Amino acid sequence: MRCWLALLLFGCLPALAQHSAVGEAKQQTIEVQGQQVEVLSHPWAGRQHHGAVIMLPSLGQPAQAPGLIAYLRDELPIHGWATFSIAAPALPAPINFTTKAEDVSKAGDGTVQSRGNQASAQRSDEEWQQLRQAQQQYLGDAIKQVTPLMQQYPGGWVLVTENQTAALVMEMIAQRQLTMPNLLVVVNPYSADPEYNRQLANNYGLFAMPVLDLQSPDGAPASLATQAQRQLKLAEQVARRSRQQQLALNLSQPTAYAECLSIIRGMSVAALR
Predict the structure, then answer these.
(1) pTM of the model
(2) Using one digit for the tens of pLDDT, what is the confidence trace for 183-212?
(3) How far is CA 61 from the centre of its chain?
(4) Among 38, 122, 197, 220, fewest CB within 10 Å belongs to which?
């Protein structure tokens, strides 16, 4: 009965192209700014029903991004959270190459040569601002398209994101361009814009929801550089139950994933109380 109802609900969303059976991971597409963007969703898989999680991987990564995002995407549904992973904006080309303005917000296709946790070359303040605005416009439009799907899973909602994408999301929430989730989870957050990266932690003071800041030893140098500052800023948000967790293991090691899952599970349920 539940599968039949889910199928009926998905059938009422003409913007989506269905690719797999209900009850399994569903690979879908949404249209964002005239382009087809991939969304990978996993429905509830257990008796617990807490809500939904949006997952935004590193810049340039597709919805099926590997690593921690993939692990959480598969594991959280078992613990009562449906997951929706969205392809991230493209990783910008180095500044010695010409990139069309309309291309900077395109979803990643997984073919970029640079890694999503590597800082890019210097740009002017104006160029950085224009780039962030284009990427944030993409993220806002994509999340807006996915929101109707989340309504199938009533309860709270959690946003999990990493690296440069996390910095973009933090600014969007701080500037009220994005609705605050019940819990924001950022993994090794940083901005490749040096000036903005130095101010990144100040966003935490503008949040009204709890934040879980996960820092791993193998995070980008720009993320490690602000770790202490972010920790101090989060310590001021005790009433909101925000915290920073410094991981003992690199996120290149799958053994670190279970620790992240346990922390996120605990904080996500507490955020709904």
Answers:
(1) 0.82
(2) 999 999 999 999 999 999 999 999 999 999
(3) 11
(4) 122
- In this prediction, residue 129 carries a pLDDT of 86
Beta 81-86 vs 35-42: how paired, if at all? antiparallel
User: Which of 9-18, 157-166, 173-182, 189-198 shows the lowest per-residue confidence on average (mean pLDDT)?
Assistant: 9-18
CB atoms within 10 A of CB 119: 17
37, 86 contact by CB (below 8 A): yes
Contact call for residues 179 and 206 (beta carbons, < 8 A): no
What is the amino acid identity at position 92?
A: P
